[in-house]
Structure formats: structure tokens, C-alpha cells
Amino acid sequence: MYSEKVLDHFMNPRNVGMIQDPDGEGSAGDPECGDYLEITIQVEHSIIVDIKFMVHGCAGAIATSSVLTELAKGKHILVAYTINENDIVTALDHLPKEKIHCSLLGTVALRNAINDYRCKCNK
Ligand code: FES
After folding, report:
1. What is the arithmetic mean of pLDDT over 10-38?
2. Exposed, middle or buried: residue 35 (CB in 10 Å: 0-12, 13-18, 19+)?
3. Quick one: pLDDT at residue 54?
4. pLDDT > 90? residue 122
5. Residue 106 lies inside a defined structural domain of this protein
6. Catalytic residue check, 119
7. How far, in Å, CA of 26 to CA of 111, rounded?
8. 5 sits in which H/E element
9. Average pLDDT of the chain, as a whole number
10. Domain housing 63
């Protein structure tokens, strides 16, 4: 059912935690399953130099959030903003169809964190 990469990110999630005093923070929740994700980012010269996540959710939410942080780290915020579910599924080799919605938590939370950063740096 799950690819090796999904199992790896589920068993050994990357970038877990919260950045203290982050440049941006965002969250997303799925009201149907109750899963919830928080992302914090550190940005230097518009590049995401650090990113961490905390999730209360299913194996799919953990794996997709973990790989999302790897995809976003080191990227310009405008590039990171465009990361979508297809990018996450590709990075994980495969994700069961019924679990693809789990990756939405990550993309929404990351975009919210980037929006938060952009609001703060425009003040
Ligand atoms: Fe809720 Fe996976 S079942 S995010």
C-alpha cells in the first residue's frame, strides 16, 4: 500500500519540531479527520533556510509533511509557494489515492507560513 519512501518518512520524519521565534508560521487542519499541522520557517534573503513541522495526524500526514519540508528547504519562497500535491506524491514515489488529501495539509500550512512571513516583512 505504501511506498518505501512513505514508510521511511513516516518512521523517520525529517525536520520535526518548531523553530523558536520563526520568521513565518502557518497551520492547516482537516475538519473531517481532525488532523492538524503546524509549520514554522526561517527565511534569509527570501530563501527558506530552515523549516520544521509538528503534526497530529495519520501516517500519510506525517510522511507528506516530512517530505514537504525537504522539498521546501533551500528554496526561494516564491518557488516553495508553488509546491503542490503532485510534487509531494512524486517525491514519495507513490501515495495511495485515498491518502492524497493528506498532502494538502502541508501545502496549505506552508503557504500560510509564507504569507505570514510576507506580512511580517512588509510591516
Ligand atoms: Fe487526515 Fe490523513 S487522514 S490528513
Report:
1. 96
2. buried
3. 98
4. no
5. yes
6. no
7. 7
8. helix 4-11
9. 95
10. 4-116
Q: For ligand 1, is residue 106 a contact (CB within 6 Å)?
A: no
Residue 122 lies in a domain: no
Q: Identify the residue with better confidence: 35 or 122.
A: 35
**Cα angle for residues 71, 3, 13 (degrees, 5° grid):** 45
Q: How many domains does the chain have?
A: 1
CA of 35 to the centre of ligand 1 (A): 6
Q: Is residue 123 part of a domain?
A: no
Task: Indicate which residue's Cα is closest to atom 4 of ligand 1.
Answer: 102
How much is the average pLDDT of 69-83? 98
Residue 48 lies in a domain: yes
pLDDT surpasses 90 at 1: no
Of 56, 27, 32, nearest to 115 by C-alpha is 27
22 lines ligand 1 (CB under 6 A): no
The model's pTM: 0.95
CATH number, position 11: 3.90.1010.10
Q: Whose CA is nearest to atom 2 of ligand 1?
A: 102
